Amino acid sequence: MGKWAETNRKFFGEKDFLKWIVVVLMAVVLSAGISFAGILPEFEKMKLLVGEWKGTSMDGKPATVAYTLVSDNSALMERLAMGGDSEMVTMYHPDGEHLMMTHYCSAHNQPRMRTNAVDAGGSNITFDLVDVTNLSSPDAGHMRRLVVTFTDNDHFTQEWTWTQQGKDMTVIIHFERISP
Asked: pLDDT digit string (tens) for 157-178?
C-alpha cells in the first residue's frame, strides 16, 4: 500500500477510508457516464440542422422545415410542411448506439426508424423502419426509410421512401438554409 493510502487510512479510520474510496470511485464513474452520455456522432450531425430551411421536392412542390432542440437538447424536433399539406413532426433522439426517430405522419400513423448505417464520411444518415404505430393494416401506406444527405452547412437533402401494398415510392427534397 502506498504512503498516500496509509496516511489517509490513519486520518479517516479503516471504515471511513473505505467509504471515502467508494464515494470517490462512484463520482469518477458517474462523471465519466455523464460526460459520454448522449455523444452520438449522428445526433451531433443532425443538431447542425437547427434553424429554418426552404426546399423543393423533385416534382417541384415547395417545402419548409424547421429544426429545434428540445428536452434539454436531448431531442431534435423537425416540423415539415410540403406545399399545402398539413405539417408533420419528426422527433430524433439517441437510443443507445443508434439514432432513433418517430415520424408523426399526415397519414395518421407513426413510423419509428433507427440508424443502422452511417457512411464513412458522415454525409449520409440512413434511418430504416423498426415498427409503425396506428397502422390500419400491414399493406397500408407508411414511411419506411429516410436518408438525410448533408451537402454543406447551408444545404441538405431528405430522401423519404413511402411503401404501400408492397410498392415503394421515393420523394426527394432539396433544402437550403434561410435562418440559423
From this structure: 999 999 999 999 999 999 999 9
Length of the chain: 180
Q: How far apart are the first and last CA of the chain?
A: 57
Give the predicted TM-score (pTM) of the model: 0.77
Q: φ, ψ for residue 85 (rounded to 5)?
A: -70, 160
Centre a 10 Å sphere on the Cβ of residue 83 and count the other Cβ atoms it contains: 11
**Neighbouring C-beta atoms of residue 47, cutoff 10 Å:** 13
Residue type at position 114? R
Q: Mind listing the pLDDT tens digit for each residue in 23-63? A: 444 433 333 333 345 489 999 999 999 999 999 999 999 99
- DSSP letter string over 125-140? EEEEEEEEES-SSTTS
Looking at residue 71, the DSSP 8-state letter turns out to be T
